[in-house]
Amino acid sequence: MQPLKIYNTYTRDISLFTPISEPFVGIYLCGPTVYGNPHMGHVRGPVVFDVLHRYLKHIGYKVRLVRNITDVGHLVNDSDEGEDKIAKKARLEQLEPMEVAQFYTNAYHSMLNQLNVLPASIEPRASGHIIEQIEMIETIIANGYAYESNGSVYFDVLKYSKNNDYGKLSGRVLEDLIAGAGNEVRELEGQEEKRNPNDFALWKKAGPEHIMQWSSPWGNGFPGWHIECSAMSKKYLGAQFDIHGGGMDLLFPHHESEIAQSTACTHQNPANYWMHHNMVTINGQKMAKSLNNGIGVDEFFAGNHALLEKAYTPMTLKFFILQAHYRGTLDFSNAALQAAEKGLSRLLAAHQTLQNITPSSASTIQVDDLLNKCYAALNEDLNTPILIAHLFDIVTNINYLAAGKQTITAEDLEKLKTGYETFVFDILGLQAEKSNNNSHLDGVVKMLLDMRVEAKANKNFALSDDIRTKLTALGIEIKDGKEGSSYSIN
After folding, report:
1. Model confidence band, residue 82 (pLDDT cutoffs 50, 70, 90)
2. For 266, which of 29, 239, 270, 396 could close a Cys bridge (C-beta 3.0–4.6 Å)?
């Protein structure tokens, strides 16, 4: 089996994955800022990196996955000014900030559970690591890359850039950033505190009205958004770890700033591999609450949003996401979701069919070849759409086996069952939908199939055909094979 290769955003190439300390792998993922219910923009990252997490474990690595909760320091305009997002929500709803953070953290966890995403090994909160952030800022100041100004601390981008390449990750050129920092940027409140408009806050002075603030060597304040992830990844994964993941919208300024401040503190890039998933779009535009085109996850599952023709299940959403490569855009449409719904149904139905196949003395299909193609797809930068295409090839062979058009030995049948379950359930993390009505529907359809068998035995072919025709009209497809009849819902 070929080794795993992944695309590294920092080096802009696909390269062999080599852990720092095999068999251990450390992964840091930027988690949510918990000030609102999860929307569709929050879904793709957890699903993509869940596949990475599951696959690394499958091929023998011991994975520590750290995914943070941002519950302080992320300001409403994502710059160094404005009101903290959680504090603003708390003020509007007359709640304690941590009450807001806990409520929406619970909502985020509920979404992950519905999508069958594995829990993180460690899930640190920014507010619980203020000491680590202050210590890191002190080191950066001591190393000459940050300065205090009026109770706030800023990272000195120009000083850092004399010996380091600020902008390498995102492809930004510092000279262009400086040229673009015109009067509009300079006129923002507090910008006069900075030596350069591109300097970013490591610590912000808090006014008396600011709800969330802590004491520090520079006075009462709160941490900047970027320093949180650097401090927490360093604490739980070390100064340098294997993979840092997140969305492409975090490339700049968040991840660029993480690299700069971590390098200024420890003299090395914190991650060997930087992995970024692309966005979910609608009509070519990023899907996000801030753009007023966001669909809440609960709305998606209930079907009560104007953009939705119907409700979709969590596994349909997950399968829809996995049908596109994580580095490509994923454009929302009801047609694509309904196609994903049918595709998922085919995969799950084939698993049921596989359980009823009787082995033969010889195999006419090459099981090893089918499974090796699945591994090859994953090893080429987690290419889930190619993996799914190979799984549908396996589905075709399963249906041929059930219809008696192919044969398989007991040994190969067991290998096929194990391999299919590994890719569909263990690595992609798909599962049968949970519905109170499924067992009742299954019982009713099986009863009708038994009636059809009895009608055929009594040569009452008109009744047999009538049952099939009426079930087909209801979207229930009957498949006749040498092991009996099965059904799938279209």
Report:
1. confident
2. 239
At position 457, the amino acid (one-letter code) is: A
pLDDT in tens, 270-301: 999 999 999 988 877 777 666 667 788 999 99
Amino acid letter at 353? T
- 147 forms beta bridges with 154
Domain 5-277 falls in which CATH fold? Rossmann fold (3.40.50)
**Identity at 7, one-letter amino acid code:** Y
282-427 CATH fold: Isoleucyl-tRNA Synthetase; Domain 1 (1.10.730)
Cβ atoms 237, 243 nearer than 8 A: no
pLDDT of residue 94: 81
Phi and psi at 182, nearest 5°, equal -85, -160
| Of 3, 49, 63, residue with least CA distance to 379 | 3
Provide the residue ranges of all domains of the chain, joining segments of one domain with +. Answer: 5-277, 282-427, 438-489
Q: 378 burial class (0-12, 13-18, 19+ CB within 10 angstroms)?
A: buried
Q: Residue 9, Cβ neighbours under 10 Å: how many?
A: 23
Span 359-377, average pLDDT: 97
Task: Return the closest-CA partner of residue 83 out of 207, 198, 220.
Answer: 207
Q: How far apart are the first and last CA of the chain?
A: 36
Question: For residue 147, what is the enclosing H or E element?
Answer: strand 146-149
pLDDT for the residue numbered 453: 84
Residue type, 193: E
Does residue 212 come out as left (phi exceeding 0), alpha (psi in the -120 to 50 range) or beta?
beta
Cα of 490 vs its chain's centroid, Å: 28
User: Coil, helix or strand for 427?
Assistant: helix
* Amino acid identity, position 196: N
Q: Could you tell me if 353 and 485 are in contact, meaning their C-beta atoms sit under 8 angstroms apart?
A: no
pTM as predicted: 0.86
Judge if the upstream peptide bond of residue 253 is cis by omega within 30 degrees of 0. Answer: yes
**Closest to 230 measured CA to CA, from 129, 83, 123:** 129
Mean pLDDT on 389-413: 97
